[in-house]
């Protein structure tokens, strides 16, 4: 089987390292790889397979009948163990016999072998028989062999329910379960080396870290040209993408779709979501609980609020869904009719604010987390997020309650230099944002795409040399970070292993 991909393989260093560790293990290893559609599971497995050539049997299931699936697997096993034997009418009568036969043939090889079954959920669609057969084979023979078994599936709900849940036949057998996440922002630098940082941040705001969406962008074409082409493609060809993603968990998607739409358009509390979607309040709460399980929605709480505060806000975690519902969904009918100008005008008016409100703030929080861990900030936060209450809000917050340290940050995506008033207002909000207990040391961080004015730099230096203090806090410095610095440091930290921790006494 030969697969071709339109773009180079980027990122996934940690995932490849995990696969290699499992491969190098002296014992049998069992990996379950899962993740949302288009996230790159097949690409990851295929790239790793190429590194070990004739020691890996990679087989992808297809949406076919049980007998066709088993026949295809049987022939793949025969070809793998008899590469010079030509075609054979081998057809194992049951999945249990098929897996046991693979185990026996692998044992006769005398060296480590890997079996990768991609799209395993196509087999599960026919019932639990194949999972039970594989569980039996693993318990009886496969777990004693010199091999690596890897299962992968795109139907997230089915993998969790039929492979990883305590009720599943294969529960507890996996050596490792890897939930493949989207590629992080720094990987855009590797995939789009000709793009400046502001274009890569904008790209990430549109498609996030889903490699299949990146494949629609030409790394050599200008961002504006790529954006227009992708928007039209998304409107005409990816219009059902949100429903497909939901259908991995939910059969009837209509009401859930309405909630995603409401959140993307600025409704972040249950009451606001109820008003925007028109759904009864009891239904909204129940639907939100299930959407949290999908991972496409998360409930964020203010990091400086009381631990049991109920003032959470719901957000979409997937940039493509945010962009789709905010900009594409309302204009699909017009685009289908060939009327595009209203959408372009909407993008001209609001894309800048959209990037700043979501993606730039998320990248700033990612930088804060890594910078704290690597000593680029004076404090190491245990949590990074945002803070808000009726009096004030902060885009970026890093908190370490044990040490009484707090990082407060403000993000500006304007291409203009940031004036000193932004820093002054951030400092002035300190009292309103402090957690209810303790005395805190507070460090301020200003994230600015366009840098800052000389006056802002002077104010920052003044705050460093003459720290302010309040009744329950004392300032501990200011850091000014521009886009170029954030981009360069995140890229370096993405490629470098994390610093060695100090020895742990015992």
Explain what this protein looks like in three dimensions.
With about 500 residues, the chain is of the alpha/beta class. The chain has 3 domains: about 170 residues, Rossmann fold; about 170 residues, Arc Repressor Mutant, subunit A; about 130 residues, Trna Endonuclease, Chain: A, domain 1 (3-Layer(aba) Sandwich), CATH 3.40.1350. The protein is about 45% helix and about 15% strand. The chain has 22 helices and 12 strands. The strands form 3 sheets. It has a 5-stranded parallel sheet, with helices on both faces. A 5-stranded mixed sheet has the order 8-9-10-11-12, sandwiched between helices. A two-stranded antiparallel sheet has the order 6-7. The longest helix has about 35 residues. The relative contact order is 0.08. The model has no long low-confidence stretch (mean pLDDT about 90).
Radius of gyration: 26 Å
Main sheet: strand order: 2-3-4-1-5
> So, the CATH homologous superfamily of the largest domain?
Winged helix-like DNA-binding domain superfamily/Winged helix DNA-binding domain
Strand content: 15-25%
Architecture (CATH level 2) name of the largest domain: Orthogonal Bundle
Question: How many structural domains does the protein architecture include?
Answer: 3
Structural class: alpha/beta
Q: What name is given to the CATH topology of the largest domain?
A: Arc Repressor Mutant, subunit A
Question: Helix coverage percent of residues?
Answer: 40-55%
What overall geometry do the principal axes of the alpha carbons give? Answer: globular
**Main sheet summary:** 5 strands, parallel
- The N- and C-terminal alpha carbons lie at a distance of 51 Å
What's the pLDDT, averaged over the residues? 91
């Amino acid at each position: 089987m030969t697969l071709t991909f339109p773009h180079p393989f980027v990122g996934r260093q940690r995932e490849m390292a995990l696969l290699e560790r499992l491969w190098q293990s002296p014992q049998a290893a069992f990996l379950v790889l899962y993740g949302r559609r288009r996230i790159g599971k097949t690409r990851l497995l295929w790239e790793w397979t190429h590194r070990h050539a004739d020691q890996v049997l990679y087989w992808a299931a297809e949406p076919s009948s049980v007998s066709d699936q088993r026949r295809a697997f049987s022939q793949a096993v025969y070809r793998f163990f008899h590469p010079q034997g030509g075609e054979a009418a081998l057809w194992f009568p049951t999945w249990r016999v098929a897996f046991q036969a693979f185990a026996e043939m692998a044992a006769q090889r005398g060296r480590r072998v890997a079996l990768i079954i991609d799209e395993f959920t196509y087999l599960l669609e026919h019932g639990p028989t194949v999972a039970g057969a594989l569980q039996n084979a693993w318990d009886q023979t496969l777990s004693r062999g010199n091999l690596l078994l890897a299962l992968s599936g795109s139907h997230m709900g089915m993998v969790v329910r039929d492979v990883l849940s305590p009720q599943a036949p294969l529960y507890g057998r996996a050596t490792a379960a890897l939930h493949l996440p989207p590629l992080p922002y720094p990987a855009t630098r590797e995939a789009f080396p000709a793009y400046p940082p502001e274009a890569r941040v904008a790209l990430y705001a549109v498609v996030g870290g889903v490699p299949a969406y990146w494949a629609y962008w030409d790394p050599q074409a200008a961002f504006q040209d790529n954006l227009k082409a992708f928007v039209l493609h998304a409107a005409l060809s990816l219009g059902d993408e949100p429903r497909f993603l939901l259908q991995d968990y939910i059969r009837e998607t209509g009401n859930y779709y309405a909630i995603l739409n409401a959140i993307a358009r600025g409704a972040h509390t249950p009451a606001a979501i109820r008003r925007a979607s028109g759904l009864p309040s009891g239904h909204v709460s129940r639907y939100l609980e299930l959407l949290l399980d999908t991972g496409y929605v998360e409930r964020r709480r203010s990091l400086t609020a009381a631990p049991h505060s109920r003032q959470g806000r719901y957000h979409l975690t997937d940039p493509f869904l945010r962009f789709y519902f905010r900009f594409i969904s309302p204009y699909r009918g017009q685009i289908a009719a060939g009327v595009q100008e209203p959408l372009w005008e909407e993008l001209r008016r609001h894309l800048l604010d959209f990037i700043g409100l979501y993606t730039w703030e998320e990248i700033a929080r990612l930088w804060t987390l890594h910078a704290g861990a690597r000593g680029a900030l004076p404090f190491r936060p245990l949590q990074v997020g945002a803070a808000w209450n009726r009096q004030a809000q902060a885009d970026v917050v890093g908190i370490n309650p044990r040490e009484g340290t707090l990082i407060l940050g403000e993000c500006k995506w304007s291409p203009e230099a940031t004036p000193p008033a932004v820093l002054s207002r951030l400092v002035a909000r300190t009292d309103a944002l402090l957690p209810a207990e303790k005395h805190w040391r507070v460090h301020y961080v200003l994230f600015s795409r366009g840098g800052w004015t000389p006056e802002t730099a002077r104010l920052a230096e003044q705050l460093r040399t003459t720290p302010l203090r309040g009744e329950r806090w004392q300032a501990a410095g200011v850091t000014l970070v521009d886009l170029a610095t954030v981009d360069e440091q995140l890229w370096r930290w993405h490629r470098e292993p994390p610093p060695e921790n100090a020895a742990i006494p015992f």
